[in-house]
């Protein structure tokens, strides 16, 4: 491959700003794919794919539509202005079914034609209307509602719950997959005990180190670029399991390698990639970080506290304690700060004047914190490396 071909391939492989759409470039998440597959195969079952921001839910949803060739798929993206009718209008419009008929006569041939589904022509619809749309349809259909968390309308959520239950009971060849940001299913569609039997909950967390390593190595092999273990480890550590930052680092590392007309990643290439990844991070993250650590005083420890938060061990809900932050802070700075000072800093980082980069959970004595935007963890690690 010449330089232009390699650069074109780099932009095709690494997609930090948009979800992956090419199944050949999708690596890992085998457990999640298998869970969705089992839902599709189990007639009358549906699923909710939920998790934090930036873990790759939309990429997985895109790939799912390509993985299962024997079903018809329709994937739509919800937004704040949507209601129950509008999301279903978008969903059914995308469904194109093949119908077959035989010609009349002795030399009759089979004729294939496409048909599309339509909602009833009325202002409001409900679960029974959706049931009627699919009543005489026998194809296996998967309908994905991505970014369902953007819908705040309680009526829409209730109607969706009713529809899932109705389809599960009466139209078992239709599968609904709800995708969105949330710590649990209740945050997405509300609490509906009647759905427990027919709705599988699939939580998606950050990529494992093994999945991240597999993606990086697979990509570099395609580009015929050699990467040493220590640099691979840094990419995995700094990206913190978030595909966005894995793609950012790999994109700029490989581009710099090609620009240098070499085939091996060096520390200089990696340092360049870190700098460019910081510059190309989301504007809201860069702005929030700057506001969180800014101070008119010369002695300002907010920067080190934010770093300690990013490095702190977390529980299954991504929460960390004051003691965890204190331990990391004192190891990073050797200042021997006391717990009272850390409590003050953590409290301030929950306020608007510090961009509210932290969220406070629990009551006094059992208080824990989490980064409001999980992607901040990776960004802060990159900032630390860039200061060295």
Strands, helices and their partners?
Layout: H1 3-13, H2 30-41, E1 46-51, H3 57-67, E2 72-77, H4 84-93, E3 96-102, E4 110-116, H5 127-134, E5 141-146, H6 154-170, E6 174-181, H7 185-189, E7 199-204, H8 209-223, H9 229-239, H10 243-259, H11 267-279, H12 283-293, H13 302-311, E8 320-321, H14 322-333, H15 339-348, E9 358-361, E10 368-371, H16 376-387
Parallel strand pairs: 1-6, 1-7, 2-5, 5-6
Antiparallel strand pairs: 3-4, 8-10, 9-10
Helix pairs in contact: 1-10, 5-6, 8-9, 8-10, 9-10, 10-11, 11-16, 13-14, 13-16, 14-15
What does this structure look like?
There is one protein chain. The longest helix is centred in the middle third of the chain and has 17 residues, at 154-170. The chain has helices spanning 3-13, 30-41, 57-67, 84-93, 127-134, 154-170, 185-189, 209-223, 229-239, 243-259, 267-279, 283-293, 302-311, 322-333, 339-348, 376-387; strands at residues 46-51, 72-77, 96-102, 110-116, 141-146, 174-181, 199-204, 320-321, 358-361, 368-371. The radius of gyration is 25 Å and the shape is globular. It folds into three domains: 29-204, P-loop containing nucleotide triphosphate hydrolases (Rossmann fold, 3-Layer(aba) Sandwich); 208-279, Helicase, Ruva Protein, domain 3, CATH 1.10.8; 283-387, Winged helix-like DNA-binding domain superfamily/Winged helix DNA-binding domain (Arc Repressor Mutant, subunit A). It has 16 helices and ten strands. Strand 3 and strand 4 (110-116) form a beta hairpin. The strands form three sheets. Strands 2-5-6-1-7 form a five-stranded parallel β-sheet, with helices on both faces. With 388 residues, the chain is α/β, with parallel strands linked by helices. Helix 1 (3-13) runs antiparallel to helix 10 (243-259), helix 10 crosses helix 11 and helix 11 packs across helix 16.
